[in-house]
Amino acid sequence: MPKINPGRLLSDLRRFAQFGAYRTGVHRPTYSKEDMDSRRWLAQQYEAVGLQAHIDGVGNVFGMPHSERRSLLIGSHAESQNHAGWLDGALGVIYGLEIARAFAETPDCFGLPIAPVAWADEESHYIPLLGSRSFVGDIEEAEIDRAVNVDHGLPLRDALREAGLASVPRSLVEPGRHVGYLEAHIEQGDALEASRKRIGVVTSIVGIWQYSIVFYGIQNHAGTTRMAIRKDAGVAAATLTMAIAERFPEVAGPRSVWTTGRITLEPGARNIIPGKAEMLFQFRDSEMPVLERLDAVLGELVEETAIKTGCRADIERTGTGKPWHMDPAFQAAIETAAALHAPGAYVRMPSGASHDAQVVGRKLRSAMLFVPSIGGISHHWTENTNDADLVLGCQVLADAAETILRGEST
Amino acid sequence: MPKINPGRLLSDLRRFAQFGAYRTGVHRPTYSKEDMDSRRWLAQQYEAVGLQAHIDGVGNVFGMPHSERRSLLIGSHAESQNHAGWLDGALGVIYGLEIARAFAETPDCFGLPIAPVAWADEESHYIPLLGSRSFVGDIEEAEIDRAVNVDHGLPLRDALREAGLASVPRSLVEPGRHVGYLEAHIEQGDALEASRKRIGVVTSIVGIWQYSIVFYGIQNHAGTTRMAIRKDAGVAAATLTMAIAERFPEVAGPRSVWTTGRITLEPGARNIIPGKAEMLFQFRDSEMPVLERLDAVLGELVEETAIKTGCRADIERTGTGKPWHMDPAFQAAIETAAALHAPGAYVRMPSGASHDAQVVGRKLRSAMLFVPSIGGISHHWTENTNDADLVLGCQVLADAAETILRGEST
Questions:
Q1: Under an 8 A CB cutoff, do A242 and B237 touch?
Q2: Mind listing the pLDDT tens digit for each residue in B255-292?
């Protein structure tokens, strides 16, 4: 049985957090100097375990075993959100490294090839899930040509050139080469903590359906236009927000979530009745019928709001991600390992966030493990997890990896 | 009786609209080249009527009669909103010029001194009602030092230097020198048109109470944070907007208006639950007790919303303008003239918009006349008024001016 080294694991996690250290978290945007330094450091560590390391044309870092046998990819993404936490992504990346080491040090695991991986730009600085999508062949060159940084607007092509990746080929999945993919991640919610569990066995990753909803009213003077004749697009947006808050709970699933992340009123002046209101809205669920039901109800509510407020409404679906179910046998392997190391302290649960596993899962059998987030906090520099949980998660994933690779070899 | 010249009036209005012509409207921001050209043109016209013209240190243009008797100021503001209408401000300015000419041409009006005036920056490119506030002594040098342009952020001091006004003194009201102030303006609403009236006799100018209302929720991941534990600041803003829409009609006056002009959610990302929501809110009424009642109810609703949504709320009053009642004798003079020239087609009404008359009114007896806005449209380049109404309004104001000045002389 592979035995991970808790001290080395924690020390590497802390070392990795020095790349772009920010308060108690990190600021390591994709292709920044800190991000590329962290990727080169990873490649060195992979080499030191006896793996063949390379950074591909979008910055994915692979550590490939010198083995004829099919290997198990283990990793996550290396970059961070802006001024965010030290574990989001990094946890799964360093688990991959530590498990590769543990296997290399365990004589009877010698022939079981672990391939650690660090994906690029899961966090959408340029293109959401860019690295894993590139790996499964889901990114055209034209999409890379068009992409710009969401914060400073500079082209992705320039960033890749700056990072020294302009003429490096992108690595594509070869299904015959890999058994599958395992990813560990912090939960980023409070479900584990609230139920006093320490390991989440991810059953599925939610589908995210995104919308841009625009109401067109009549822009006019806020002093001289009588209330009776107003068509206020901002009031329409508020009306819809409240209608959603009232109706969605009646038709949603038990874990459905929905969010209006942005409301923009135009022209946005104190003394002008808004003529236009745009809402960025999304909902998530792990079941397709629930997503379709929410979509239908949203359409009805937008129409009702338009009639009620006298505003014209446009609704555009900007994303309809399918939920993705994790591989049942991989889930079972994680669950068995969790039952051994944390009896009674694990639970099956869907993931409310996107992860590279949902992309890789399209081509390779995949599964995920969650460790708790203290206070449910993530995407913030105060994000954290207890050391004991960090260690436990890695050991459980290592055991699961062994089970999967042994199953493969028989 | 002074007889205005309709052809000359319309021709001057159209000439004035060439300064910064934009589609069928104008773009003539305060202290822009077009604005300063228009002010210099006005000064020339004032001189041509035999008045002593000068442009003061904030750009106000005065045409002062060579007379020992107290004169009647007549005017409005010369600049426009950005890419807006040709009559907003310009109407009252050109009325002042035409009435000065009509009096100069009418032998028995000879001794009745008309002082046309064009105020600067009523439209808030730098400081709302800057010109008239400067005239009544309500602007300190420090406020001018601090002010910047709302669009491009350049300092007011630089704009004044550029306009050649840096070392020109600001003219201050000398109450013994003026009988009072008359201002004509387009209505900027549809009340006249809807009731088929052609002249509005303004009874009062509303007080505008402005608020910045901020809700603080908990910013978190839009996928992993369960609905049950969310504190969504955006939902709080929508809740308040709807609560206002429901409760305000019960306590408002018949002409009260209220508007949420802007809602800003932070961080404003699709996939993050807003941790902060800021609303710019205002209401207007011409009666102080109504304003105070709305203020009290708003405070209650903000508190109720905070309790209901679990968000903390801050409410700040950023403006509490007093409503201003027009001089009764001046109103009567306008009404009598309207009854003569437009029998049955005039009405007393409050002004829902701010005007220089509410500022000048603090020091001099003041009154206002409205002409209809086609479709109630203003602050837009399609703003317009029928020629017949443009002419009528000027004749009514001229008659009212005569009545006021004759009353003064007896």
A1: no
A2: 999 999 999 999 898 888 999 999 999 999 999 999 99
Contact A271, B261 (CB under 8 A): yes
Strand bridging mode B312-320 / B52-55 = unpaired
CA-based nearest distance A284→chain B, Å: 7
Q: What's domain B6-205+325-409's superfamily in CATH? A: Zn peptidases (3.40.630.10)
Equal fold, A6-204+325-409 vs A207-320: no
Q: Quick one: tokens of A25?
A: 């978290």
Compute chain B's Rg from CA coordinates. 23
B272 in contact with A, Cβ within 8 Å: yes
Q: Is the pLDDT of residue A1 over 90?
A: no
Rounded Cα distance, A43 and A62, in Å: 7
Domain B207-320 in this protein, CATH class? alpha beta
Whole-Å CA distances, A138 to A204, A230, A321, B85, B179: 21, 47, 14, 52, 79
Domain ranges of chain B: 6-205+325-409, 207-320
Average pLDDT, chain B: 95
- The DSSP-derived string for B184-250 is EEE-SSSHHHHTT-SEEEEEEE-EEEEEEEEEE---EETTTS-GGG---HHHHHHHHHHHHHHHHHH
The CATH classification of domain A6-204+325-409, taken from the options 2.40.440.10, 3.40.630.10, 3.40.50.300, 3.40.50.720: 3.40.630.10
What percent of chain A lies above the pLDDT cut of 70?
Answer: 100
Asked if B182 contacts B398 with a C-beta cutoff of 8 angstroms, the reply is: no
CA A312 from chain center: how many Å?
Answer: 35
Contact A351 B256 (CB under 8 A): no
Cβ pair A223:B208 closer than 8 A: yes
Q: Does A226 touch chain B (CB under 8 A)?
A: yes
Structure tokens that stand for A48 in this block: 């030191």
User: Is there a contact between B167 and B55 (Cβ–Cβ < 8 Å)?
Assistant: no
Per-residue pLDDT tens over the stretch A237-288: 999 999 999 999 999 999 999 999 999 999 898 888 999 999 999 999 999 9
Encoding tokens for residue A164? 């020294």
**Arithmetic mean of pLDDT, B300-323:** 95
Q: Look up the ipTM and state it.
A: 0.79
Please state the φ and ψ torsions of residue A40, each to the nearest 5 degrees.
-65, -35
Q: Which two tokens stand for residue A293?
A: 């039901």
What six digits make up the tokens of B70?
């107290």
Q: Which of B206, B205, B180, B202 is nearest to B332 (CA)?
A: B202
Considering only residues A172 and A376, tell me which one the structure prediction assigns the higher pLDDT.
A172
For residue A410, the model assigns a pLDDT of 42
CA dist., res. B379 & res. B22, Å (int): 13
